[in-house]
Amino acid sequence: MKAMLKTILFCLAVSLTFTACQKDIVNNVIYGIPVADAGPPQTIQLPASSFTLSGTGTSPNGRIVGYLWSLIAGPNVPVIHSPASPTTNVSNFTTGTYRFQFMVIDSVGLTGVDTVSVTLVAAPIQTLTVQPTNNVNEIHLGYWNGNYTNPADVEIAGCAWTSGGTPLNTRGIFKFDLSSIPASATILSAKLSLYSMPTPLLGNFIDANFGANNTLYIERNTSAWDAATVGWFNQPSTDVTSQVTVPHTTQSFLDLIDLDVKNLVAPMVSTNNYGFKIRLQNENAYTIRLFASSRYADAAKHPKLVITYQ
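and the corresponding structure tokens:
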């Protein structure tokens, strides 16, 4: 009798201390654990704006009735757009490695989990160098007794002079082909090079740079223009707030190498590319800054633009 009483008391003690975890273990033994698969590891290259997590689940107890994606670790907290779905898009991430947990719940309430890592890597830095010959989108605008534009000139200039006693003014507009750069790219640097005309055909025919103040502006064009029809009176508008100022020089010849035009080029890539305009700050005779155009015989002296981007 005493032995039986001890057995009853022991069973009661075991029952009272039986935890929920232990019950789950029993349930798992009875029913079987669901299996979650969060998919293979991923490596995503920026500038991707989103990536997809896709998981599956199976259970010996019947169908899977619930799913849950959650972040375990990462360099920031991204947006999981459909955390309760087996497949979801994820956005608002940065470079680095993320780890996500995928949970499945079956029809008897049991769960299975798996994890997956996603590594976001920065886009490679790329360089585009453009230095075309006979650039069809390069025009030497001129005013002398009316429109005096020359679309085939071997030089482009910011010029204020006279010819035959009549005022002569010129400006240059030119556009490079940037279509190979994605609009979403980040422009890291943009360097423009213009080369002094070795054999001047304007001004005093001796000096490529002349005048008391030959400060030059390089500006971004903000309106469309057609190389076949553009002239002095319908030249494109410009953004003067981002213009690059090239200081006055007393040197007869001075190549402008690697001018920083990043702030001009970035909107050309992301929005509309209408190219550059060069003009004198003060268009007072007798002043000139004269450069070889893309039609000059020496291709090494053609206008050049070098862009690095991600």
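(Above: one complete record from the training split.) The chain has a mean pLDDT of 91.
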